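From the pipeline queue, job 12 of 40. The input is one protein chain; the requested action is below.

Action: predict structure.
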Amino acid sequence: MSASVPAATERRTLLVVDDDEAFRTRLVRALDARGFSAVGVEDYEAALAAAREDTPECALVDLKLPGRSGLDVVRDLKSLDSTTRIVVLTGYGSIATAVQSVKLGAHTYLTKPVDADQIVAAFAEDEETPPSAPTPAVQTLARVEWEHIQRVLADCDGNVSHAARLLGIHRRSLQRKLFKNPAPET
């Protein structure tokens, strides 16, 4: 057996909770190849059922899930086993959700796009010391606005008129903003 992949008895168990099936499947495969015994589930109920059956040593939890939030998953996984090391993953990073996820017991917080090596590094970093609040990069106001518009538009299933009403701006103004390239991340 290769020296880079531990034997099956040494492999840490990892629960991947993400509603994007293709992304979840790729992550499980990639994390398996990097020495974890990974299992993927799509929502809160499946995550808790899997954790009750076999409490994972590690968990990767997406914040935006159908039904209950990923923050509920973090809180309830920690209540099942306080030693579970949790990394929160989301496409829409903000200081508020980062702080809230750490308060609920997450070890750290990653924003998408992310690759398997970054996830492995997040689980490996500072394993002997307790988690501290992550320091997310400060985004420009233009980037925050663009991400907010994208979230509202996604919640409206792409309906520009409905999104414009919710955002309190004219439909044409929203269309102009959507045609602009996103503000770069810092």
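Job complete. The longest helix spans residues 141-155.
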